[in-house]
Amino acid sequence: MQTTLIVGQILNGLLVGAIYLLIALGLSLIFSLGGIVNLAHGAFYAIGAYLTVVLTPRIGFGGSLIVSPVLVGLLGLVIERLLFRRFYRSDPILSLLLTFGLAMVGEQSLRIIDFILSRYRIAILLLVCLLVAATWLLLQRTAFGRVVRAGVQNPDMVGALGISLEPYMAAIAMLGVGLAGVAGVLLAPITGVHPAMGAEILTGAFVVVVIGGLGSFWGVVLAAVIVGVVRGLVVHVFPPAAEPAIYALMALILLFRPRGLLGERIQRFE
Q1: Taking CA 265 as the corner, what is the angle to CA 264 and CA 269, rounded to the nearest 5 degrees?
Q2: What is the pTM of this model?
Q3: Which domains are assigned to the chain?
């Protein structure tokens, strides 16, 4: 019985890690290419969850699983065109203030506008694996991905080759916030939906990015798994320590690996 409980908590931890992974991947991609720390990322996650609640009675959960992330991604595209691209080469504090303001607007807007089976949890893990694999293939096996990876390391060199990074930044912003929207869709039936849910999940996602290491795709994946498992085990032993445990884990890892587990050296940030 004890073993069953521990396995159950590990699976629940992996579920949380999988959700962190979707959000953290988007955060990492947007920061790596655009240099913007998107504090509004949690708001996109919350919007995805709210859209699921609104759309599911009309088009079913399967339909909302497709439509909601697309709508959130399109919102990200609009925000990138109107706001983000003005701050790519500005002082990072300006983008922090911008995205903090966006987060507040998103949360308060949701306030104004103002479930599940184990099988479903397993389906979430499988779907996240498919999305991670698809994102990796896009970044590693396509011409688009090659330009993005080159832009992460040396945008000036990419520009010297006559390639404009603006459309790539727009696409990455859309992809990143779309992944956050997917996370919101997947978790809405389990945790319920409320306006502050974005702020609650965002800190954990940042922890995953820091532990995994800047610029490392698989570092973020590995960190999400570790954070999820650690959190699940701590919840089983002493629930109040679940959140502090992941911060302690981050501090411990950074003591020995200041760049994170698999952090890459990115020239333009050094």
Answers
A1: 120
A2: 0.76
A3: 2-269 (1.10.3470)
